[in-house]
Amino acid sequence: MATATRALFMLFGATGDLAKRKLYPSIFNLYKKGYVDNDHFALIGTGRREWSDEKFREVILDSVSANADSEEQAKAFASHFYYMSHDVTNPEHYDALSDYANKLDQQYDIEGNRIFYISMAPNFFGTVAKNLKAHNCLSDNGGFNRLIIEKPFGRDYDTAEELNNALAKSFNENQVYRIDHYLGKEMVQNIIALRFGNPLIEGIWNNKYIDNIQVTLAEKLGVEERAGYYDGSGALRDMVQNHTMQMLTILAMEDPISFKDVDIRREKIRALRSMHVYTEDEARQNFVRGQYGANGDQRDYRHEDNVPNDSITETYVAGKVLFENKRWKNVPFYIRTGKMLTDKFTRIDVVFKKPLVDIFASAKGTESELNNNVLTLFVDPVNKIILRLNGKQAGQGMEMQPLDLTHTQSDEEKAATPEPYERLIHDAILGNATNFASWDEVSRAWEFADVIRHVWDTDKPDFPNYTPGSMGPDAADELLARDGRAWVFNSKK
Ligand SMILES: NC(=O)c1ccc[n+]([C@@H]2O[C@H](COP(=O)([O-])OP(=O)(O)OC[C@H]3O[C@@H](n4cnc5c(N)ncnc54)[C@H](OP(=O)(O)O)[C@@H]3O)[C@@H](O)[C@H]2O)c1
114-118 and 5-12: which strand pairing? Predict the structure, then answer.
């Protein structure tokens, strides 16, 4: 039986796209499953628009009805939603918000548990946090106060630190839940289960057996309607500093002493501390950027709507990351992410070393035909695991061939898998910060990314340099070829 938690949500950006597409359906699923206490829960949504409660509830119904068991259920859910027109930059509005929160707290007997969710442009995060505290919107009667904030968390170390200092004036670090929705993905969470639940895997999870690890976050589409935002950000800030770094950290961390959030975070931070932060020259050698060109009807990036035609924003990044510790000495972690690639997928390929001696080839006096064992974790769009081994071809003799052990998520497992936002909001309700990025993690990732950014802002790129529908620029293949390696997934194969 689910544990239901009493909670009052205050959502800033309630009229926005994310709220409608992801947040309301997620909270509805938690309501259906009994994870929010159906009798003791309310949500105040805010935006500048002059909406009534009725209008707000229509939006809620529109967003959740397809997933409701009945119209009554959806309506009962929507009846917990209240709207206040509010400009977050106007301090006076917060007094009314505080009064309203206290009223609903009493009405629903919520016992002071508050979750503040800022689903707005990041330049508002600090202002909202400051005013919430200054205008007594945080409860002080023994309930919890938690702040969930969306990405991006800064655009470099300095702006992230400034934002963090602003938040810290109102919320302690353990009250801040920084969303990185990749951490809510089933297969990303499965990395921890596979590594620390299986001595078979954890026993070989080191530089004695692993040759290299490859993490790919590929998108098939271009910038679409996000061009304005994206051109000021680029792939390094948009995908590498956050999602990719978080995945690398979980792959590289040491065993936590328990599955508690504090213990996992401690190990993630230790892993990030051992990550080598490049000098500028090293960054030039170990990181590659790209921008897509034209292909048939597809315009090049510089001719997309809302993109300046001399833009040097990268739509692709590949790089090599090194962890300088006993476990990972000499094991490169290769990463790549980009837009307009072959397909939309996220995968992790763990490439194992070949046997030191190939007894089959030496018996025949031929070159070894054994392949590297590869453990591939498919994170998106399907959850799948493939372990590629070398096996014997059926028949006479001893010819070898690749043998794949495959686990694909069943339909039942798929149905039981919550969307990342549902899972993460539930974690925040429970006060479990395991799947949120801590300040120490975020700041270290910025230290790493800032060096590369600085080099790229200084050096002139030769753009465009890759074709839509490919897996990126040739330089990304050369990065691995220089080390005598290749991407496991390569569309040119
Ligand atoms: N959309 C996505 O798929 C997605 C994915 C990942 C992360 N995010 C992040 O989620 C956040 C929200 O994104 P979004 O796509 O939902 O943005 P959006 O559609 O532009 O919504 C922005 C919200 O902010 C409100 N707002 C703007 N200025 C305001 C002010 N001065 N006072 C009060 N409210 C104000 C708007 O309400 P009014 O217009 O009514 O004032 C609206 O509700 C961003 O940090 C974004 O980076 C979004």
Answer: parallel
**Annotated binding residue 17:** yes
- Nearest in space to 192 (alpha carbons), one of 430, 435, 414, 411: 435
Give the pLDDT band of residue 19 (cuts 50, 70, 90).
very high
What distance in Å separates the CA atoms of residue 49 and residue 15, rounded to the nearest whole number?
8
pLDDT, mean of residues 396-419: 92
Does 181 count as an annotated binding residue?
yes
> Which residue, 90, 125, 150, sits at the end of a domain?
150
Residue 272 backbone dihedrals phi, psi, to 5 degrees: -65, -35
Whether pLDDT at 493 is above 70: no
Best substitution site from 17, 84, 148 to test ligand 1's pocket, by max atoms within 8 Å of Cβ?
17
Give the residue numbers spanning the domain of 260: 183-481
Is 175 within a domain? Answer: no
* Beta strands 36-47; 81-85: pairing state: parallel
Residue 342 lies in a domain: yes
Same domain for 437 and 302?
yes
454 a catalytic residue: no
Distance CA 151, CA 119 (A): 9
